[in-house]
Please model this.
Amino acid sequence: MTETDGQEPLSELLMRSARAMRRRWSDSLAPWDLSPHQARALRVVRRHESARMGTIAAHLRIAPRSVTEVLDGLEERGLVRRVPDPTDRRAVLVELTDAGLSLLAEVDAARDGESATYLSVLSVRDRAHLARLLRKLDP
Model:
């Protein structure tokens, strides 16, 4: 699809849709007073069971010094804790606390609800087709 045929380019439609979902997800974090970076940091830590700060920064695509601020806020709230890396005494790992794991489950449920609402305009068949197409594009 090109702009000359009177339709918006597919790339613009895809980006607009992604921005709309990101905005919905960001809004869904308000009850927990979490930023999107904080929620994503919690997910990274959960995925890795524990993670070095550099790993979290890389996944968030932010500078390592910036991840310190994100993690400080989560640690102050008792959602993560820093522990020594047993394989390298100079390094620190970040792990979820029980409170962090519980909060993340609530946040993920809200996110799933927002996603379901957003995608509800599509039939089950259309959603399956969209998922198949997006998996093809996933690097």
Q: What stands out?
A: The radius of gyration is 18 Å. Helices lie at 10-28, 36-48, 53-60, 64-76, 98-119, 124-137.
